[in-house]
TrEMBL record:
Name this protein carries in UniProt: DNA-binding transcriptional regulator YbjK
Domain (HTH tetR-type) ranges: 13-73
Gene3D superfamilies for this protein: Tetracycline Repressor, domain 2
Taxonomic path: Bacteria, Bacillati, Actinomycetota, Actinomycetes, Pseudonocardiales
Alphabetical UniProt keywords: DNA-binding
Length: 223
């Protein structure tokens, strides 16, 4: 009896996971508005009533699909950040390694994730789950930033993830030659790391030099 119940529970978890993956694929292909119980069930290869059995509304299905997706991605992100940090000798080296991983697509960024972020801007009901997702990513990044000597790693993690999201969104929407992408990503990451590694007074001194003193001789401010 117990064995039979265990098999039923395993089958139920498998079907639920199929539905969540199908919902994310559907969002990626056609946007949030394409998510209905019938469409997701069909996409998962299950009976029409399957999605409605597990999720009372489309909104619940979408929210749970994002949670499931983030849970899987967090594990990938943690492992990659640990690899990036392993045996690195400087902040700049960490930035270079992270750049290679990002541009190579190893962080598993998807169109569906950003579709759901944008949906939260239009639909207040989605904001709690998106905030939950963003907070989870920030928490996964904090240990890396602490290892770089950044005291306020929690605050830096917000800027770090905002930067990664912005770069990823540009990469998805308007891909650039890989050499340009590598250079932009590396400079952006290294700048962020160094800015947060400085104390407030050092950062103020570095950024308060009058623009006239930075003139490169050609009539432009040489930054």
């Amino acid at each position: 009896m117990t064995g039979s119940r265990g098999k039923q529970q395993a089958r139920s978890r498998e079907r639920r996971e199929l539905l969540l993956r199908a919902a994310m694929r559907l969002i990626c292909d056609s946007g949030v508005k394409a998510v209905t119980h019938r469409a997701v069930s069909a996409h998962a290869g299950l009976p029409q009533a399957a999605a409605g059995y597990y999720f009372a509304t489309s909104e619940e299905l979408i929210a749970e699909a994002l949670r499931f997706h983030i849970h899987e991605r967090i594990e990938v992100v943690r492992d990659l950040l640990a690899d990036v940090l392993r045996d690195a000798e400087s902040v700049l080296e960490v930035g270079e390694r992270l750049t290679q991983a990002l541009v190579a697509g190893k962080f598993g960024v998807t169109v569906a994730q950003y579709e759901l972020y944008m949906e939260a801007a239009r639909n207040p009901a989605m904001r709690a789950v998106v905030d939950e997702a963003m907070s989870a990513f920030e928490a996964s990044a904090a240990p890396l930033l602490t290892s770089l000597g950044i005291a306020d790693s929690r605050r830096a993690a917000k800027a770090f993830m905002a930067l990664l999201d912005g770069l990823a969104l540009h990469r998805l929407a308007n891909p650039q030659p890989i050499e340009d992408d590598l250079e932009l990503t590396k400079r952006s990451l290294q700048g962020l790391f160094l800015a947060f590694a400085m104390d407030a007074e050092d950062l103020r001194r570095q950024t308060s030099v009058p623009l006239a003193d930075r003139d490169d001789g050609g009539g432009r401010a040489g930054l």
